[in-house]
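Sequence only, no structure available. Ideas?
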Amino acid sequence: MEDDLALRVHERLSACPGLRPVGPAEGRRFARWDLASLAEGALGECTDPDSITASHEKRLRLRLGASGREYEHDDDYCRRYWIRNPAEDGEGGQARGPLGTIAVDTWPSGVGSLRVSSLYVHPVARRRGLASSTLDTVYEACRAEGLHGFRLDTRWTWQRSVRYYLNRGLWVTSWKHALGLARLSYLPRYEVVENEGELTFLAAAPDACAPGVMVPLLVADAVDGRLRLRETEQYARTRDELNAVRYYARSTLALHLAVRGLPLVRGEEEWAEAVAGRWCDIGDPEGLARKIGAFERVARDDGWRLTGLYGQSSHSRRH
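Reply:
I predicted one. Tokens follow.
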């Protein structure tokens, strides 16, 4: 049944003016756009994807190692789309070339959601809201067919992408192999407010009399190089069917702390639990601190660019 819902989502996406399904003869071009996105994130090289020659592509894939390998695409599992802007079409409605890419799975993952990948906007088309409007389109199509929303993965070392998704209000739902983020209907809108070094995580109150009321759930700051994390009374009273708000609030706040270079470790006992394997998929901030170390080691071994990351920060964790 959910597979049928996913296919109906794709019917909606295919009919959206801001998207165009990738044609049968466009697979190689889409792969070069995917490669340009990877090269920019991993190597810091901003390249026009349509200018990548065969020799340049080979060099990039060799430098990227296993991550740069081109995989054969199968439309049964994932549908690819070009991002476009109908307002920029030529006279007579002649469509202009693509401005970006996105791919959406054809079967649900997690609890009634679709996985998004290959989100990329050409450098000349950025800061126009194309990525945001595309994600909104995917979310609205999912909701229209009874699914909760979408999930996506990004790399910790791709700080521009990480910060973009956090600014978009996505929740952190995993850090097993990469940073997993999501926009799901059962996770309310949230805000992270910073005031004099103290971060407060607020979420929309589901039972508030007035719409838009935000209530504080968690408060975090640094004391002598350690994280101090406090739960509010509202957090203690929060009860969700899947406990998702309580659970993901901690992991989402942890990533907000990390991108600011603030400590993620509360003490030796909590760090020992993280080293022992607790919170290796998702959970408390110490689990993220441990995974960040692993993410950075792998990226460094692969020759990726690492600049301004948490492990190199003067506010790095103490353990």
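The first strand starts at residue 19 and ends at 21.
Hope that gets you unstuck.
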